[in-house]
User: Fold this.
Amino acid sequence: MVKGVKSANERFAGALNTYTIEAMMQDGKALQSGTSHFLGQNFAKAFDVQFVNKENKLEYVWATSWGVSTRLMGALIMTHSDDNGLVLPPHLAPIQVVIVPIYKNAEMLAKIDEKVAGIVAKLKSMGISVKYDNADNKRPGFKFADYEVKGSRPSGDGWPRPGEQYNGNHASRYTGEGDAFLRGYRRVREGFARGHSGKCLQESARLP
Assistant:
């Protein structure tokens, strides 16, 4: 982020000065992210806007015009993204972990639901936002692609095999690397606290 003053040709029409912040995007281009215009008394004189000063005399107001707009949302997306979609910093991501079950029948789904309930509760107790998407109107592949575009990589392809314990994998949205699903809740919590996205279940985030 670079702050500065606009040139005479770029400043707001009628303003004495325009101050700006410019953000550098991933492609090397600058995005004007916010401006503040010092209007002096020009607009007050044009619209006859006056006030009574401490000497009890009328004086034209000194005005400013400033603010930021929805372009900052675009800047956030352009900065925190890759070719596969959005990648949000952990503290901004509304959903930090997404769990998607893979099953063959209702009985298998019921077993997964039961197991995942404890996982979700544990993660929430650590302050990690979780979504368990067991909706049956979309296939897992569709969910994976949809959440990845939104900033998550839910590769939690867990299922209970006959005679075996619950199995599952996770993947980082940032690196795409996967690992066994539960290798310690403490590491998950510490990873988010440090802003790390790798090895933290299916994070929907990264820091720059």
